[in-house]
């Protein structure tokens, strides 16, 4: 067991933020923690890493209590750039971690090379862009080769190039055996790295495998929608008609089957639009009272 979170409660005054949160990470995988601002995501991550006490509950990391400081030889928590020191270099930050954990200099330099920060490693952090700071934070988080990596909003403020690079690094770490728990508001990026999502709503956890919900919708404008609807239904393909347009839902995204059925009847496809239903649509349904939108 990599991480076990059992019956965690946390209140601030009369406001109960976490209400018996329970979940496990049994094997290396990427899991996203999603919820509106103020839902308790950062509170939960801080409790897991023992930066904040819970009111009740128990957390174990790799079989040890999260209160055991030795766990930080095998896990890392990447926070935001406010933990960096402007007048120290990137290498100074890595060296501090290396000194605390007894890591060889070669490991620090290899990590910098892996993350792609070697070119500015010896510059002071005050001269870093936000993207550079985020990559330094990631290097600091993985330099000890953790078995569990926890990240709080790692994609905040990144430009598209930096976000793509960061996502690729996370996927690479996962493939090499690191379990990753990350909180993020960027649902599109979440869909690219994982289908395992923990939705935090009103202090409770809704744990879902998004692969069970993901669908592809094709919206088609055809020359004869009534004839097309009859043919697709007969072929076992679910169809909805909205304003004279065919809405076809396929989990396997097998567009060729749809086209084949319509071609057999000489039905002309005048327009086609594809949309993937992923975590954003699921989020809207779960938090419809906050978003004001129901799908």
What layout of secondary structure does this protein have?
Elements: E1 3-12, E2 15-25, E3 30-34, H1 41-48, E4 56-61, E5 64-65, E6 75-78, H2 90-101, H3 105-115, H4 130-142, E7 148-152, H5 160-175, E8 179-183, H6 187-193, E9 196-201, E10 204-209, E11 215-222, H7 225-234, E12 239-242, E13 245-250, H8 255-264, E14 269-277, H9 279-286, H10 288-291
Parallel strand pairs: 3-8, 3-9, 6-7, 7-8
Antiparallel strand pairs: 1-2, 1-4, 4-5, 9-10, 11-13, 11-14, 12-13
Helix pairs in contact: 3-4
Structure report:
It is a single chain. This protein has helices at about 40-50, 90-100, 105-115, 130-140, 160-175, 185-195, 225-235, 255-265, 280-285, 290; strands at about 5-10, 15-25, 30-35, 55-60, 65, 75-80, 150, 180-185, 195-200, 205-210, 215-220, 240, 245-250, 270-275. It has about 300 residues and is α/β, with parallel strands linked by helices. It folds into two domains: about 5-210, 3-Layer(aba) Sandwich (Rossmann fold), CATH 3.40.50.300; about 215-275, Alpha-Beta Plaits. The strands form three sheets. A six-stranded mixed β-sheet has the order 6-7-8-3-9-10, with helices on both faces. It has a four-stranded antiparallel β-sheet with strand order 2-1-4-5, covered by helices on one side. Helix 3 (about 105-115) packs across helix 4. The longest helix is centred in the middle third of the chain and has 16 residues, at about 160-175. It starts with a strand and ends with a helix. About 30% of the residues are buried.
Main-sheet strand order equals 6-7-8-3-9-10
CATH class category label of the largest domain? Alpha Beta
* DSSP summary: helix tally: 10
At CATH's second level, what is the architecture of the largest domain? 3-Layer(aba) Sandwich
Number of strands: 14
